[in-house]
Design brief:
The protein has 117 residues and is mainly β. It is built from no helices and eleven strands.
Amino acid sequence: EVQLVESGGGLVQPGGSLRLSCAASGFTFGSYDMSWVRQAPGKGPEWVSAINSGGGSTYYADSVKGRFTISRDNAKNTVYLQMNTLNPEDTAVYYCNVRDYLLRDYWGQGTQVTVSS
């Protein structure tokens, strides 16, 4: 059974930083691309970032480019999202995602990030 467990969210002041983690199990982690998606209150899901299976290629939404960094540790079955220079518009529930070869999406429970003074 695929399981994704996010952690690391919280309340942070504008300009601050957080690092999110997503621990994966139930599949061959190192064989799959991973993504982060967020959903702000009252809005639809927004794709944030992705990383390929080997970690050598990363992709970012324009809204976070230059501020967020995605990485992964295949030995630990974990993907990370380092978020710097946070602003109130980054407030959302952040989910990690994996899509299998049958194009089925799997999601964690999400972790809340709130940016506020």
